[in-house]
């Protein structure tokens, strides 16, 4: 198939591009290469997508006119929308760009699918929608009280997808990701930050007491689930997680052990827009998609640290952000 992959220079996007290419698909990738975090990392990911079936265009999905030209240039069979403004805390500082990309950008893509009769759409969403729900999180739980503009913008994208499925019979898979980490990961996420700071003997910041837990999921497993979600399902929401929450301090200990160094920790108050815990129930993804994660947290952290050290002259210079 010819697949439009948005957010192709992003962390999950680049890994998904490689999975699609390995499966024999042609991938047209787009990304606006924004500077929310170090653009050099995004360029590094793009440079590692070395395949004749991959074409890249710098493009912002919130720009409907630019999207229209792209859809006139190519005939797409499916769209995977991974383009997103991520980061809970920054969404409070600048909520407008989150709705421009996450909600309006999704609407733009759906409208082009309607106009070009593209029948399959995959949307990347987030576990942040489950704030306040009892764990483990199942896809049938109500997610009507998002506690950050980031989560609200993703909720807007999900319900817009449903309306286009209902009105125009577009087959849609919504995949809710749970705390993704791995090689070439985002430098605003805890695992990347902790690896770099502990390696360089810099203090790490823990918000709260470190007992908050996350369902950390290795990026290759997430990419595989995203590709499998191209399956025709009607309209379905799937949790893609590791089904095993870990406390943040346990993650720090794993990194310390692998690096052979001790972390210096600075504690700050827990942010009210953050979640205290996440835990994905992944039975639905297993039953319908035949997907389940293959990597334990220990395996994934080992692979992430190996990538960091193998590319140390590059990784040690990547700018971190809160």
UniProtKB/TrEMBL annotation:
Keywords: Isomerase. It comes from the Bacteria. Residues 4-304 form the NAD(P)-binding domain. InterPro entries: NAD(P)-bd_dom, NAD(P)-bd_dom_sf. Its EC number is 5.1.3.6. Pfam families: GDP_Man_Dehyd. SUPFAM superfamilies: NAD(P)-binding Rossmann-fold domains (SSF51735). GO terms for molecular function: UDP-glucuronate 4-epimerase activity. Gene3D superfamilies: NAD(P)-binding Rossmann-like Domain, UDP-galactose 4-epimerase, domain 1. This is UDP-glucuronate 4-epimerase. It comes from Flexistipes sinusarabici (strain ATCC 49648 / DSM 4947 / MAS 10).
């Amino acid at each position: 198939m010819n697949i439009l992959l948005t957010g192709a220079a992003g962390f999950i996007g680049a890994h998904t591009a490689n999975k699609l290419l390995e499966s024999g698909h042609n991938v047209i990738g787009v990304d606006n290469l924004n500077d929310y975090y170090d653009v050099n990392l995004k360029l590094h990911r793009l440079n590692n997508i070395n395949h004749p079936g991959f074409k890249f265009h710098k493009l912002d999905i919130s720009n409907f006119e630019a999207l229209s030209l792209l859809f006139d240039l190519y005939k797409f069979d499916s769209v995977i929308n991974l383009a997103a403004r991520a980061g809970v805390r920054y969404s409070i500082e600048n909520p407008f760009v989150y709705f421009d990309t996450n909600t309006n950008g999704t609407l733009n893509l759906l409208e082009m699918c309607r106009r070009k009769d593209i029948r399959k759409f995959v949307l990347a969403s987030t576990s942040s929608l489950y704030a306040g729900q009892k764990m483990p999180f199942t896809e049938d739980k109500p997610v009507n009280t998002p506690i950050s503009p980031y989560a609200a913008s993703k909720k807007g994208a999900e319900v817009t997808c449903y309306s286009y499925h209902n009105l125009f019979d577009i087959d849609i898979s919504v995949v809710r990701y749970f705390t993704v980490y791995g090689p070439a990961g985002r430098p605003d996420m805890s695992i990347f930050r902790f690896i770099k700071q502990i390696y360089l003997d810099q203090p790490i910041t823990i918000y709260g007491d470190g007992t908050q837990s996350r369902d950390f999921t290795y990026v290759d497993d997430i990419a595989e689930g995203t590709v499998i979600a191209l399956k025709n399902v009607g309209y379905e929401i799937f949790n893609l997680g590791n089904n095993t929450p870990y406390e943040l301090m346990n993650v720090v200990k794993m990194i310390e052990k692998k690096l052979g160094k001790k972390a210096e920790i600075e504690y700050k108050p827990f942010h009210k827009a953050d979640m205290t815990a996440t835990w994905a129930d992944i039975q639905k993804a297993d039953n319908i998609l035949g997907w389940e994660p293959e990597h334990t947290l220990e395996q994934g952290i080992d692979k992430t640290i190996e990538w960091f050290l193998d590319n140390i002259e590059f990784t040690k210079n990547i700018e971190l952000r809160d």
